[in-house]
Amino acid sequence: MVRLYTDELNIGYGERLIVKNLSVSFPDQKITTIIGANGCGKSTLLKAATRIISHQSGSILLDGELISKENTKVLARKMAILPQSPESANGLTVGELVSYGRFPYQTGFGRLSKKDYEVIDWALEVTGTSEFKYRPVDALSGGQRQRVWIAMALAQETDIIFLDEPTTYLDMAHQLEVLELLQKLNLEQGRTIVMVLHDLNQAARFADYIIALKDGEVVKAGNCEEVISHGVLKQVFQIDAEIGRDPRTGKPMCCTYNLIKGD
């Protein structure tokens, strides 16, 4: 089942096209990972799909409707995004930050309702951040902060969550912690997760569906067996990769690689 897809999408800045004639689908209730070299259009695609930026032509459809014509609050109840570098939360407590996720549901003077407080507490509990509720966000570790930002996205109560490089600046343990949390949200709550990752082995391990981009175009889209291959990685990253098997998951993994140098 597919609720969200793009059709012949073109996105650019000025006269320079970053994403070109792109038609991709994001499977519902699955984890989709977008991979590709820096500047290939991964983050641009996420921003356009969540209407942070506009697109030049083509269309992005959710539940059969153009997102460009959707009411902002209605759209914010369907999808949430965690950007690559979330804005500073200096001076805010964890509970205050997570409460911002309730904005799409607020009316009048924007006061939080009993339901809002219940959802905030639920989001904190699910992400394992309840103990930090009254602590300043900027007093937390990188992994803790990232979980708090995810809690804010969860408080939005959306079916679809976009994350742009959610493991950036985190050490190996915290990267795994965040990815396992997202996997849990997908498996236990049926959340559709769409994220950009740089680590190919993390993409293979956690994604149900992978979209490989190069210069704003799809090179290959499919499951990890189809995308994490010598030929696809050669075309996307210009590397000569040795593909093996993850001894714990049995999924393909990039064991080592060399750069393919030009003439």
From TrEMBL:
Keywords: ATP-binding, Cell membrane, Ion transport, Iron, Iron transport, Membrane, Nucleotide-binding, Transport. The keyword Zinc-finger does not apply. It is found in: Cell membrane. PANTHER family: IRON(3+)-HYDROXAMATE IMPORT ATP-BINDING PROTEIN FHUC. It holds the Pfam family ABC_tran. One of its GO terms (biological process) is iron ion transport. This is ABC transporter ATP-binding protein. Residues 4-240 form the ABC transporter domain. GO terms for cellular component: plasma membrane. It is a peripheral membrane protein. GO terms for molecular function: ATP binding; ATP hydrolysis activity. The keyword Transport applies. InterPro entries: AAA+_ATPase, ABC_transporter-like_ATP-bd, ABC_transporter-like_CS, P-loop_NTPase, Siderophore_ABC-ATPase. It comes from Paenibacillus chitinolyticus.
